[in-house]
């Protein structure tokens, strides 16, 4: 192979993937490590990479303690009820107590945050969301990361983490290749902060053809956060907790601002409210503890997102679709109409394009909604990711092993989608997690934990052969056939992706089976997953761009296999509306009020599963909003 | 709405190639101009559209669900700190001009260089604080929240 090997040595902190989590890590690391070598490896261009590449119209995680709005524990309780109890409350509290300081700094850097003209506080979209003109959110945080980093390598697809040959289970950097030049890149580093993304495109999407790109989460979110860490033998948690989104049909435009700020609402084909009729049956499945309409009404306790999905899915299945978003009332107000469009242009331009193409004017017509294919990620309303240590002052013993946001692999940290059990972090929370991981990584180095690190030439060479194998494979077997894409000894990355998506869809609860799976299906699915894994050894890449797609697919496959094992392990339907275990259709708090933790043995590929205890924050005041209300009402 | 490139406007400068998050804007070897090599991996994020100095890149809605005849165009101006959109629907009834700020300050000047910030004390290193904290958490003299300060503890088991 003619490609050069480029070695970057003596790195202290390597940031693998620079979305919101990675940029937060790179920026903050400089403060705690003034003379440390900080290097960023990013698959695309840091100015427009990650899930926030096209911008955001809201920051969905902001406490507003400055304005007396919420305390961190209020947000923890919100995330807890939204995720049916299954969250890491130490990590969430930690994120929530720091997140405002990130947002205040964004504003100081030039982020246009809207203000409430009356109170002077940030303009709220909902209890946790503030509205921004965030088209340039990503270039802004990228500028911060670039100020702190010694070097930013754009267009490096990180394929593997390097492991220390001197000490078992200790990270020693990463390897990858430049998606333009094809050069092999070796980063020897004392610590790695994985800021790579969650996974879109692992379940068959509703759209076909070109529209396959209009996924809800970015198509470049290739599950590399999970692929990298699983390969290294890091423990993962809550990987079964995929998310299904109720969004505008086909364009998957966001609904948050519509519901919360524009006060739009949904109805079925007959113009009826439909959610409440599904709730009594649903209450039987999940228990009154998780769905109590009276309590929700009194305390403004949210109804978990998955449960509202459940009502949507069942209403459509009963023949009462489509579900419409009632925009015709709100859009009569020209100011709100403008916000409705800006909301799309700021973060999902494709939805504006679709409405323009289909002549949808939400002033005169209520647009259709749909439920999406599932996604596996850890920063929106779901908490897939690595099993990480919490901070010293919050975490019980089972959740603490020395360094905040460190995985079970020494020196390997996570931020954003990479960290498990921390839903509702969103952009600001992911950036904050990056900051926390960076500080901890600096402390890890200062404590001498990375000393004696050694990466053998054998490991570097072995990985190189592996990285370029799809191109070698193509060269060898291409000439067996005349032309075209059908070959007996290889598949290309698109063919492999189609196979993965079909497999996940049919066996792990995708859209074509109405999100349903069971033990038998998952067992068959896992067998097919193993043969797919074998065939991915024969994946062929015609050029460097296809090599990128090949490695994205391998990361997606690793994430998917983990999803299947976790889904099989948890014998209950914890999140109806996200997925159903047909053989265990109820929430089972007696046996499954726990977090699921897995490890894939990097040598054998065998999975081991375990349960980890759930700790909850318990205190005198139940909820600040509720407490305020009680004191006002004199209860 | 995958992107496409107008033949007569593109001069092959490669700004789109440089910025595309999905690595799908490439230069055609024959025409020496850019094109979208993989429309089904296009998120219609408009990063390339905004980056093109010649407005040579446009978007045509995804063929599997978007009819022809629409237009969503954009001009992003970092110096003025604004972004301007024009949305035209297929039937021409919707024709919107929308303007939004993208920054409130000159680009990149107000982000501190942390290498020059005063070094953190050992006490700060041992604490739970991050850069600029506790000040920036609440913008007053209040301190960071802890379990103790908020009257909380962590308990194993089933709580709702």
Topology diagram in text:
The complex is a heterodimer of chains A (635) and B (160).
Chain A: E1 5-16, H1 20-32, E2 38-41, E3 56-59, H2 72-82, H3 89-109, E4 130-134, H4 137-148, E5 151-153, E6 156-163, E7 171-178, E8 184-194, H5 224-231, E9 236-237, E10 246-248, H6 256-260, E11 265-267, H7 275-286, H8 293-299, H9 305-320, E12 324-326, H10 334-347, H11 349-357, E13 369-371, E14 385-386, E15 412-414, H12 426-446, H13 457-477, H14 493-507, E16 516-517, H15 519-536, H16 544-569, E17 580-581, H17 589-592, E18 594-600, E19 607-613, E20 615-619, H18 624-633
Parallel strand pairs in A: 1-2, 1-8, 2-5, 8-15, 16-17
Antiparallel strand pairs in A: 3-4, 6-7, 7-8, 9-14, 9-18, 10-13, 11-12, 18-19
Helix pairs in contact in A: 1-4, 1-12, 2-3, 3-12, 5-16, 7-9, 10-11, 13-16, 14-15, 14-16, 15-16
Chain B: E1 3-5, H1 15-19, E2 25-27, E3 34-36, H2 47-51, E4 57-59, E5 71-77, E6 82-88, E7 95-101, H3 122-126, H4 135-138, E8 152-156
Antiparallel strand pairs in B: 1-4, 2-3, 5-6, 6-7
Question: Can you offer a commentary on this structure?
Answer:
- The complex is a heterodimer of chains A (635) and B (160).
- Chain A has 635 residues and is α/β, with parallel strands linked by helices.
- Chain A folds into three domains: 11-193 and 220-237 and 375-446, FAD/NAD(P)-binding domain (3-Layer(bba) Sandwich); 246-371, Succinate dehydrogenase/fumarate reductase flavoprotein, catalytic domain (Flavocytochrome C3, Chain A, domain 1, Alpha-Beta Complex), CATH 3.90.700; 461-592, Methane Monooxygenase Hydroxylase, Chain G, domain 1 (Up-down Bundle).
- Chain A has helices at residues 20-32, 72-82, 89-109, 137-148, 224-231, 256-260, 275-286, 293-299, 305-320, 334-347, 349-357, 426-446, 457-477, 493-507, 519-536, 544-569, 589-592, 624-633, and strands at 5-16, 38-41, 56-59, 130-134, 151-153, 156-163, 171-178, 184-194, 236-237, 246-248, 265-267, 324-326, 369-371, 385-386, 412-414, 516-517, 580-581, 594-600, 607-613, 615-619.
- In chain A, strands 1, 2, 5, 6, 7, 8 and 15 form a seven-stranded mixed beta sheet that branches. In chain A, strands 14-9-18-19 form a four-stranded antiparallel beta sheet. Chain A has a two-stranded antiparallel ribbon with strand order 3-4.
- In chain A, strand 18 (594-600) and strand 19 form a beta hairpin.
- In chain A, helix 7 crosses helix 9 (305-320) and helix 15 (519-536) packs antiparallel against helix 16.
- Chain A is globular.
- The relative contact order of chain A is 0.16.
- Chain B has 160 residues and is an alpha+beta fold.
- Chain B has two domains: 3-101, Alpha-Beta Plaits (2-Layer Sandwich); 112-152, no CATH class.
- Chain B is 12% helix and 24% strand.
- Chain B has four helices and eight strands, in the order E-H-E-E-H-E-E-E-E-H-H-E.
- Chain B has a three-stranded antiparallel beta sheet.
- In chain B, strand 6 and strand 7 form a beta hairpin.
- In chain B, 33% of the residues are buried.
- Strand 20 of chain A pairs antiparallel with strand 8 (152-156) of chain B.
- Chain B: One of its GO terms (molecular function) is 4 iron, 4 sulfur cluster binding.
- Chain B: Residues 1-30, 33-62 form the 4Fe-4S ferredoxin-type domain.
- Chain B: Keywords: 4Fe-4S, Iron, Iron-sulfur, Metal-binding.
- Chain B: It holds the Pfam family APS-reductase_C.
- Chain B: This is Adenylyl-sulfate reductase subunit beta.
- Chain A: Its cofactor is FAD.
